[in-house]
## 1
Amino acid sequence: MDKLGEVLGKLFLRFFGIGLFMSLIIEFCTYLNLSQNICFAIMFSCALLFYMVKDFLSPDNKQSKKNTNTTDSEIVWKNKLDKLEQEQNDLKIEHQREIAELKTNSSNTIHALEKSNSKLNHDISFLENRRNSLQDKEANLRNVENQIALNEKQIQYEIDTLYKIISQQIECAPWLALMLSEYQYTLDEKIADFFRLKSPPAIKAADKIKSLASENKAINKEMRMYKYQLSAYEKLFPWLEEYKEITAEDVKMIVEQNETPDSEYDNLKHWLSLADYNKLSTAEKYQKALDKYRTSHSKSNWMIGIEYERFIGHRYEQEGFSVRYSGAIDRLEDRGRDLIADNGKKVYIIQCKRWAKDKTIHEKHIFQLYGSIIAFQMENEALCSNREVKGLFVTTAKLSNVADKCASALGIGVREYAFKADYPCIKCNIS
């Protein structure tokens, strides 16, 4: 505001001076009686002259004004320059801060990448070692597989060779039995020579061994002849294999059961003492004999098989079938028909095998059952004319792939039933 007042004051003084000067010119022209045009010309000339010489008339003011204007402009520009310098410094500081942050972040990133790269290199090294190890194992497995294949071929060749030898006719086998018995005799002679030549010698022991070797030679020859003969029979009659595990005690029991017992006690003497038989009632003595049989741990394989047949027969009786226990009744003459189940519409010819789970049922057993079914139909044409006859193979073991396919192709059903010892073994009417 002060500056504005100062400017207005200066303008007022200038206009006032000019007005006063022009008034004087007008009075001067009037006094001289000059015309109006001359008066204006004089006024214009004076004004022009004043404008031209005003700077000379007040050089100090002009210079002062110039200096004042210059000082104000410098201050403004200096302020702008200071502001720009401050902004530049701020930008520089910010730029340096950002550069420092970028360096820190870059350093952390590089460190993380180096750590990750080190881990990746370690993983790659581990995987490469693992791959090399697996390749070595794979190569070893290939070598083992190749060796196994060669061994299998060699074993199969030996089995085929032995099978050819064993499968020869009985009249061609004596030479093999004689050769093996001679081989065993030679080994025994070597043992006798050892005792004879050792220090000190054992002459009596050597003579005894030589004597026993001569006896064993004849026994081995006869034993091997029987073995080859049995192998030939098993090939011709596969069902004989089922009776290989029957003990001498089982054979004796089968023979005794085929004979007419002298008394009722003969049927129970294996499970009941004579004293218990005489003092117990009929129901008690049979129940005690049954309990001893069921809890016995000395059952033979044949008895275990008969027990399984009775268990399976009971299952089909519960389904309304009339069951004939051919295996238990006919024994060695059952012709592979352990059970014959008939409900008036269907007849099942059932063969039971209570084998260990690690054993395998082969196709020859399926073929035997199928042949037994055909024989049953031929023997019972009238019965089979109005009934469907079907074979069932019931077992606790697994069938081989070939046996399973053969059973499917021949229409023979396969059932797997585990034995349960708590089934009703007998039926009693006690009053």
## 2
Amino acid sequence: MSAGPAGGRGTVGSPGPAESATVSAGLVSPSAAREILARTPALLDGWLRGLSEPWLAAREGEGTYSPRDVVAHLLDNEEVDWLPRLRILLEHGEARPFTPFERDGFRGRFADRTVGELLDGFAARRAESLVALESLGLRGADLDRTGTHPALGRVSARQLLAAWVVHDLTHVAQVARVMAKRYREAVGPWREYLGVLADREGGRT
């Protein structure tokens, strides 16, 4: 076990802050992020368009997201969260905190939209975001620039870009989990072998 700062014990195999930054620098780039970000709209479209209401409205519990809610949430994020925050970071640094984001703001904004309309809107806005991201021409030094998250404090452009990608993947996994749990009881004894049915028992969004 390696000693941590001030003589403390660190976790074996856990990189320190400097090492973490070095690893991230080689791992996160606009081109790598686009590989995932460009595919999410088509993935969700192929999965959800045309599904019957029981699949689209499935939830894990009170206040959690259905597959339809996930698409609406992603569209909302696309319009007011990721790229707008990146622009604030690049233009103002840490002097201007990001505009707070209301996680459930989509419920009022998109309440009357069908899943097809939500998918179309998400695809269009994501395409616009990727064009804008490309136009920024971000390089290593740009990704190391920092801004102020209203809850998390100092964050870098690189961290924001990585979080954008992982946010997509988190909600893709959520859609799979929520739909799988519709058949939680129907699978009978196979439930023992289907780990997704026990995942996130708390049902948080």
